[in-house]
Amino acid sequence: MFNAKHYIPILKWKRAEQGALGALTGEQKKHITPLIQFVMPKPKHNEQLKDIVLKFEKQLSQIPEKIIKVWGNTPIFIDASLLFTIALKGKTLDIVLRGGHELGGVFIPVIHLNDEEEIQRSVWSAVKETQSGLCVRLIRPDFSNTTKRDQDMASILSSSSLSKKDIDLLVDIKVTEDLGEYAEYFNLSQNMSDLSEWRTFIFASGSFPKDLSACKLDEENLIPRIDWKGWQEQVSSKKIQRKPTFADYTIQHPIYTETSQFFHPTTSIKYTLENEWLIMKGKKKEFGMYLANAALLVTDKRFSGENFSEGDQYIAEKAKHCETYMKNSAIGGTGNTATWISAGINHHLAIVANQISTLT
Fold it and tell me: Cα angle vertex 156, ends 154, 160, to 5°?
């Protein structure tokens, strides 16, 4: 389906991420195949689990059309593993996969080796109809017992009636904090048998921090993109069995927790550079700091320019608005948490797609 000169961003299916994907140009999309993860809606006060599930189920039939609107008819990976119940995961995959197929989309389901039979049955049935193939997502524990892993993978091949050439193999080690750790799992994945036979081979990790508590106000904060550096170092080796496609979690921490929905984030700009993230930290609920930091960023030689991406254009526009806002804050126009996350993710997607596509 694609080779190593491609990019797989792993994103939650939320408003900011949808905006970031939808704002990509056609040329940028050529180098990207997103993996979207559905998450539960934010609960209202005293809302029970059954009510949250019902709220999500009511939206299900609309999701395929929204995905097509944001992404188009090119392939996209669909993951329901972050949803609350087994029944909801299976129902979501069934409705979304079939609905996407009816609309002409190519929705590829993502499963884990430990997924329950109910989920797998939903996927096998849908895949048989859509002919989309399948993505198998391996995580760290799958490398602690290679015999069981290989047996489980053989079972998936048998139960799904698919061959390896119909399956995308995704190794996802989640959080990576140092290059040695990255290399360890990269090498373990290279030791897998028949690695060249899978439709695609993807290696994913994320090194963006859980929060910005270590960053300081009014100072330049640079966080190394260990995931990107680790991938570059490993794929340059001549000893590898197969060069994997790069995947990351953009400017978000790889581990998603529902409780994060209840915290007010700082008004910080997260800007991806070639090998680092530039963090311009703000304070909670002080949205004017977005504009002040944007005005500083656009004068920095590392700013990609307003024509580089939709996200960069957003930053440039807010920078121009800064002076007017400082004279009269009542006029607003600062943007909010969602729009700034969207801008940051869109810029990240554009810069990584460019980095990947220009590799020699």
Answer: 125
